[in-house]
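hey m, so remember when u said the tokens were messed up on ur end? i reran from scratch. heres the input so u can diff it against urs
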Amino acid sequence: MEIDTDPPESFAALQAAIAQRQDSLSPRLRQIAEYALSNPNDMALETVAQIAERAGVQPSALIRFSKTLGFDGFTEMQRVFRTRLTDNMPNYKERIRALADGGASLSDASRVLEHFIDAGVHALEDLRREVSAEDLDKAIDRLEQADHIYVMGQRRSFPVAAYLGYALGRLGRRTILLDGLGGMLRQQVQAIGDRDLLVAISFKPYSDDTVEVCRLAAGNGVPVLGITDGTLSPIAPLAGVTLTVEDAQVKGFRSLTATMCLAVGLIVALGQRLDREKTGR
């Protein structure tokens, strides 16, 4: 459904507009929205036909999606995605194209490593731009003030959750890793109080258990700190603070480069704050 509205002029405004409309989008347009926010570089650099093929939709659906957001057509919307790249990194287009080249060889170990290093660098550069100092401060506030910190992450998110559980404990924070051992996940969640904090980590395809734990916690008035991959993540509307990470991906294989960097940054920043308060400096 097309609506009469001014089109977003920045990528942040575009993200907000998509998030605001997500409940009213048809399944096909929501599919495009999820692809666009998960693959902003493709949206900036590829043709409408290439994007439509990768998103699994018809080119006309991309045009309809653009008009839903107030743009005259796809080209006008694509300029917003391109501005996200050119404003921050003049050579980003060429580097992304080289990385995404369908003919690039991954036939030997050194090339595989090289591609993941390049993808990791891009993901870290995205992290630098997308995570604001304000959101980081809010996350540190919640980690500092909580009586107990419960950490939840499954499948590829589990290493990040395990690290946070370990490192928070080393800082003297009372931390519980929600692992659901013995089928006791729901019982573990019921122990969380409104003076505690749930740290939930999940990326597409999202863990059903992690989303359900967030729903239970938020429904009981428990603050939630989400670490996830976009404004359309089911974690985002349940979290009081959301830190968004678009991690590295090569040929469908995702790394945790940027996510682990964010986790380490949170721990070090929290440790510094606790040390300043302890020493009075």
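this time it looks ok to me. The first strand starts at residue 149 and ends at 153. if urs says something different then somethings off w ur setup not the seq
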